[in-house]
Every structure is written in C-alpha cells, then in structure tokens.
Amino acid sequence: MMLVGKFVVAYVPSCREKEYYIACACEEIYAPPSAYFSLFGLTVQAPFLRGVLENLGIEPEVERIGKYKSVGDQLTRKTMSEDHHEMLTALLDNIYTNWLDKVSSARGKKREDIENFINKGVYQVERLKEEGFLTDIIYDDEVITRLKERLQVKTDKNLPMVDNRKYSGVRKSTLGLSGGKELIAIIRASGSIRRIESSLSTRSSGIIGEKLIEKIRKVRESNKYKAAIIRIDSPGGDALASDLMWREIRLLAASKPVIASMSDVAASGGYYMAMGAGVIVAESLTLTGSIGVVTGKFNLGKLYEKIGFNKEIISRGRYAELRAAEQRSLRPDEAELFSKSAQHAYKQFRDKAALSRSMTVDKMEEVAQGRVWTGKDAASHGLVDAIGGLSRAVAIAKLKANIPLDRQVTVLELSRPSPSLPEILRGLGNSLVGVDRTFNELLQDLTFSHEVQARMDGIMFEKLEGYPYANPILALIKDYLSSL
C-alpha cells in the first residue's frame, strides 16, 4: 500500500518473488550491482513420508474425512491424489495470478510481459533495470545520498533514521486506533490449537483453548467493550478445543458484534473459530476453509521387531487397546469404531459450519470435504463475508456497533500475561529432566493418539517461503512437523 503524501523507496540486495512483491508497493526500487535476484516463479510442495515410514517398519493407520483433507496422505501415500493435486493447483494458480497482476500493475506493464520475462530465467540486475523492473543499480550509501538530496539534508550530516523497533512502537493514536471513548477489543489467536496448556514452556506456544476462552469471557462479561475482533492466524489443531472456542465466540456474538479477521491462515480449527463470529473478513490470499478432520495412530510392530523391543498388554474392555496397542494393527471392529468417531467429528464440524454460515448441510458439503480455499474464492462460496485486513474489520465492527465511521475508537488488545516465576521454573525443570515426558508429548502429536484433529495440510510454497536452497530432507521434516 502506498503511503499518502510520502515517497517510498525499496533497496533489495537479495530478492525473490516475495521480496519483489513487497518492493512493488514502492515508487522506486534499487539494488546493488552484486544483488541476488531469482524471479523464476512459484512452486508448491507436498511431502510424503510413507516410504520413510516403511523403511523404519512403521505402518500409519489414518482416518481422514473429506476427499481434500490430505494431511493424512502425507503419512499414507507416496504421491498426490487427484483431489490433492486439484486443490494445490487451484491455490497456486490463484497466488501466482495475484502476483502477476499486482507486479504488472505496479510496474506499468502487461501481465503477459511479466510472465514472459519470468520464463526467461533472468538473474542479471542489468537486465532487470533495462526491462524496467529496477529503478537503478546503486549501493546503499548511494541510496542514502539520494535521500539526503531529496530531503535537503547536508551531505556532512546524518540522515534522520527510525529503526524498525521504534517504528513498530508507534502510538495507536497516529493510526486512528485510539482517542475515542468507545472500546473495541482485539483477541489474537495465532498458531496451532491445543486444548490445555502444557507444563513444558516450549510446548505452550500457539493457541491454548482454555486461555483464549478466558479472554473471550472477559470481553463478554464487560460492558466497556462495544465490539470484538478475533484476529486469527492458525492452521488448526485439536478439534475439541476448536469447538469449545467456537461455542464461546458464538456466545460473545450474541451479546455484541464480533468480527473474525483472518490473517495468513485460518483453516480447519482456525476456520472453526472464525465461523462463530457474526462477520468473517479475510485477505484475498488467506488460506481458509479446510472443513474436515483427521485422526490416526502408528502400528510400530515391525519397528519393534527390528530393534528387539517387545510390549505386552493385559486389558479389560472390548476397545480398551484401541489407542494403547501401538505394536499391532487395528482389529476390524476397532477400525470400524475408529472410522465412526472421525465421521462423527466431521459431521459436527460441517453441520456447525452450515449453521454458522446459514447454509444447508448439502450446500456446505460442496465446499467442505477438507478443501483449502483462498480468501477470495472462499468469499465467492459463502465461507467469508468480506475481503480486507484488520482496518476493514475495525470499520465493520464500528458499523455493527452503531459507531459513526468517522468517529475515532480505541482498539484494545487483550494480551496474554507474562508467565509467573513458578511457571518459568517448572518449564525449565521439565526441559532439563523431563526427557521422557517431552518424548511422550511429541509422540502423541505425531500419532494423533488422543484427539481428533482439525488441521490444514502441511503445504510449502517454496519460493514464497524461502525454501529453495534448504536441504530438501530438512525442509520435508520441517514442513511435516509444522502441520502437526
């Protein structure tokens, strides 16, 4: 977004698609003669671990509901399914088309000219300047000199600079987010969803359901807040926690206007939360939807044989070993129960989505099935109400709360309190001596051993996220773990 009344320049010593996309919002783009440029296009990657698991002697047993809910495919398949390929192709096409449109508009070129240039594999900055992708090729000190000339600062004087930390601490009043009597609450929900807080401090990041519910209730019980904005950036997680937070958001929305403002990702459990709000706002490229669930366990029998480990279980109750017996496959009756429980969780998610979005169940089923949409496409299918960022959400909140749009309000974020000393020490102690407990928590996540999950697939947009030069195996592991 161009700053009104200001001139904005970009200096890019290393630049790929994401950096250039941001730079195009500036009037001028500079780079040094030795700059690294690689505007070669975008890719999407979907890693598959089935071959690795087979070599280790691990058999995944996964129930995923929704033909596009491919997070389970990473464990059970070696290649993409047709549905998975269809979904990723649509996402990539949307993102790439948006990149081409924005860059072509900013640089005053035709879209086909930008695409043709990308396909030439140009990396020389001289060519980039010749083709109008760069304003000039100069070093950063020369950029400073030009800025001094434009600002009429003497060459022997320092250019007044504001670093990022100071700039990010700008007063809310300068952004129109304070100064008014009416208060609008912002509740941030970022990261993977867990129901309760772990005693391990390193495992307590992300969205802790019980903590977020406390904030929601605080806003609901207070008369000082005229509206609330739930700011969501989450690929999902524990389905139970997502449902409990959905309920609290619905109760809040019954007492005052609630707007869900989606950031980068609001999918699966993240969308579950959003659909509890009265209005859902998303960016045009927000990854959202993914209305589906997955659950599963690992059969470690062959691995145990390889390493000489044995485990015997004595149980009472027909299904007592459903989760405990990781040394064998599920029996047919156990597999049937396993599948029915996942189906039940999916129907709850889908039906509540239909209720929240005022759709029939059949209509919701058409856009559910675990499919991930961009915000723009989600809006066309009725999953999102408006396209925009946080400022759009604030404007809608004011409208719903009968506050004139030209009147200033105070936007107050409910921050999480800093951990107490006992909590810090407990986390430190567990980090030092609780190795077995840590391993058990990690194993529980990997095997979905206690909860049905509402998670989005682990997807890597390679150039968009900066992975192309990373070790492919490390990137694969990193992407898979980020989806859990």
TrEMBL record:
**InterPro entries in the record:** ClpP/crotonase-like_dom_sf (IPR029045), Pept_S49_SppA (IPR004635), Peptidase_S49 (IPR002142), S49_SppA_67K_type_N (IPR047217), S49_SppA_C (IPR047272)
Domain Peptidase S49 intervals: 6-153, 252-402
The lineage's top-level taxon is Eukaryota
Q: Name one GO molecular function term.
A: serine-type peptidase activity
- On whether Cell inner membrane is a keyword of this UniProt record, the answer is no
> A Pfam family in this protein?
Peptidase_S49
Keyword Cell inner membrane assigned: no
GO biological process: what's one of them?
A: proteolysis
Q: Which UniProt keywords apply?
A: Hydrolase, Protease, Serine protease
Which family, according to UniProt?
Belongs to the peptidase S49 family.
Q: What is this protein called?
A: Peptidase S49 domain-containing protein
In the UniProt record, the gene name given for this protein reads LOC100809623
